[in-house]
Amino acid sequence: MKRGIALAIVVVLGLASTAACGAESPAPREAPKSSTVYITKSGKKYHRDGCRSLAKSKIAISREEAKKQGYTPCSVCKPDGAVKP
Ligand SMILES: [Zn+2]
């Protein structure tokens, strides 16, 4: 009896996670290169490649993921701003 219920829960969870995964993918593809930003171990900002703030640590992450994790754009390198000429 208990085993049957556990099995049912596993099946339901499996279906739910598959459905959630499928629902998350319709994100429109934008230039993949420009969507990569860099974060540091301690900071709560994300940076453009080459920012001086990345001297201590530099972790590549997608902009979407950085925002999702609560990171905000650096005010020095302005990763969300227009590309400098
Ligand atoms: Zn920066």
Structural write-up:
This protein has 85 residues and is of the alpha+beta class. It has a domain at 34-73. It has two helices and four strands; from the N terminus they run H-E-E-E-H-E. The chain has helices at 2-24, 63-68; strands at 36-39, 45-47, 59-62, 72-73. A four-stranded mixed beta sheet has the order 3-1-2-4. It is elongated, with a radius of gyration of 19 Å. The termini are far apart. The model has no long low-confidence stretch (mean pLDDT 79). Bound molecules: zinc ion. Zinc ion (ZN) is lined by residues 47, 51, 53, 74, 76-77.
Topology:
Layout: H1 2-24, E1 36-39, E2 45-47, E3 59-62, H2 63-68, E4 72-73
Parallel strand pairs: 2-4
Antiparallel strand pairs: 1-2, 1-3
The protein binds zinc ion.
